[in-house]
Structure formats: C-alpha cells, structure tokens
Amino acid sequence: MKNIVGIRFFDQLRTYHFDAQNLKLSLQDIVIVSTAKGLQIGKVERLFVPYHEDGEYAPVIRLATEKDLRKREKLANQEKRALIECQEIVEEEGLPMKLVDARYAFDKNTLTFSFFAEKRVDFRNLLKILASTYKTRIELIQIGVRDKAREIGGIGMCGQELCCARFLNKLDNVSINMAKNQDLALNPNKINGVCGRLLCCLNYENENYTNCKKKMSPVGKEIKTDQGPGKIIKINCLKQTYDVQLKSGEIIEIKEQNGKNK
Question: Which pTM was predicted?
C-alpha cells in the first residue's frame, strides 16, 4: 500500500501528491522531493491521501536539513533578483509580456519563468540571453488569466480560497452553456471568478443538471394540470418542479411525477 502525502512548495498555494515510501512523516515536516524539473523542497500539508492503483507518484527523497533550509532561503533571494533582471531584459527586447514568477529547482538544474501575455510571444532571443546569463536550463511558460489567478491566489465569492489554488490540478474548460444548463442568470458579476473568466465550479454540478433534465419534460411542452392545460416555462432540477403558465396567463408550480409529466 502506497504512502501518499500532500506537499505544498514554498510560495505556492497548490498541494501536490508524492509517495513518501517508507518515510514516517508528520504534518508541517519539510521534505525534499523529486519532480520532473529536478529536486524541490516543500512542506507536508496532508497525510494519508487516497490514491489510484495505476497512478504515478514521484517520491519523497528525505527530510530537509538546516542546510537545505538555508539553501532554499538563498534560492528565494536569487529568484527575486532573476525576476527583476529578466523583466528588464523583456522591456529592452520590447516583448509584450508580463513576468509573474521565477523559480529555481532546488538543485538549480532549471530556472523557470512564468509570464502572462495576451498573444503568443516569440521569446527565442530572450531564451538565449537568459541561458547565457544564468548558465542553467531555462523554461519560459506562458500562462492564461486563470493560471495567473491560481498563482496569486485569493478568496472567491463563496468565501473560500480559490479552487484553482487550493485543489484543482487541472483547469478544465468551462462554457457559458453550463451556466445556461443550470438556469443561472447570465450576469458576469455572478458567474465570473476573480480571474474574469467563468467560474470553475460551474463544471461541478453540470452533469447532474444534464441528467436531471433528461428525466424531466422540456421547457415549452404542453401539459395538463389540475387547473387546466398549460406550458412549461421553467424547470427546477433541485426541487424537481416545473413553472407552468396556464392559458389564463397565471403561472403555477407543479411537481414532477413518474419521470415525465404528460
């Protein structure tokens, strides 16, 4: 049985899952882990994380030492300096991009810059300059406004920490049709997140609404009620009811019965 733990890297909000193997870890332990970009240092935020049998989990290498912590502090200062220097080069090159973050792998094998830009940016010359300046592997990653919100973090309209920063490892596509499917008012102030794009949580219950509406009669259908014939003008999946407009113009609410009203 795998010993999966949740690790949060310094200055980041997301938690990533790693295999602690035979290590006995406690919450808030500082550890060294292996990632695709080299060694990283992080803090244990969750223990006994459920896992998938066929999932691939990078290993926790060891507990961090005082020497490791001093190295991480030194790297943090170098990252701040690199971010400022790189932004100066970007402005000199006249590139339409805004740097968001600079991050060294713990072993300094990679220096990653993330940036925000409205359009695709040709940064080939910038890449050469940075590789020559820092003498290590350079990665430039363009992020969107949703990724930028995840990097910065914040509080959503629900009062909770942003889902993208707290637990979403993948930002799925969200469409306006999801809001329509859930009969939400198409008010940008209500259905857009702090990033200015549609709320990620529109995706959470969309499938339930879709399945619900398959079992209920559609809007526009003529049905019979105890008060006479009428037309369905609205479906309420949560209450399993319909708003029905009678011939007289009166609107009544009736309950769903036996799958679909006739």
Answer: 0.62
Backbone region of residue 108 per phi and psi (left: phi > 0; alpha: psi in -120 to 50; beta: other values): left
Structural domain boundaries enclosing 183: 148-203
Instruction: List all residues 6 or more positions away from 53 whose beta carbon is below 8 Å from its beta carbon.
Output: none
pLDDT per position as a tens digit, 44-61 = 998 988 777 767 889 999
**Do 127 and 152 reside in the same domain of the chain?**
no
18 with 3: CB under 8 angstroms? no
Where among 143, 161, 187 does a domain terminate? 143
pLDDT of 261: 61
Let me know whether 54 and 111 are in one domain: no
Residue 135: its pLDDT value, please? 94
Q: How confident is the model at residue 136 (pLDDT cuts 50, 70, 90)?
A: very high
In 3D space, the residue among 196, 119, 108, 110 whose CA is nearest the CA of residue 152 turns out to be 196
Whether 205 and 227 have beta carbons less than 8 Å apart is answered as: no
Residue 40: phi, psi to the nearest 5? Answer: -135, 160
Alpha-carbon Rg for the chain, nearest whole angstrom, is 26
124 inside domain: yes
Q: How far is CA 21 from CA 4, 16, 42, 234, in A?
A: 8, 15, 16, 54
**Neighbour tally for 222: CB within 10 Å:** 10
Q: Which amino acid is at 205?
A: E
Coil/strand/helix, residue 188: helix
Q: What is the mean predicted confidence (pLDDT) over 213-235?
A: 91
**112 three-state secondary structure:** strand
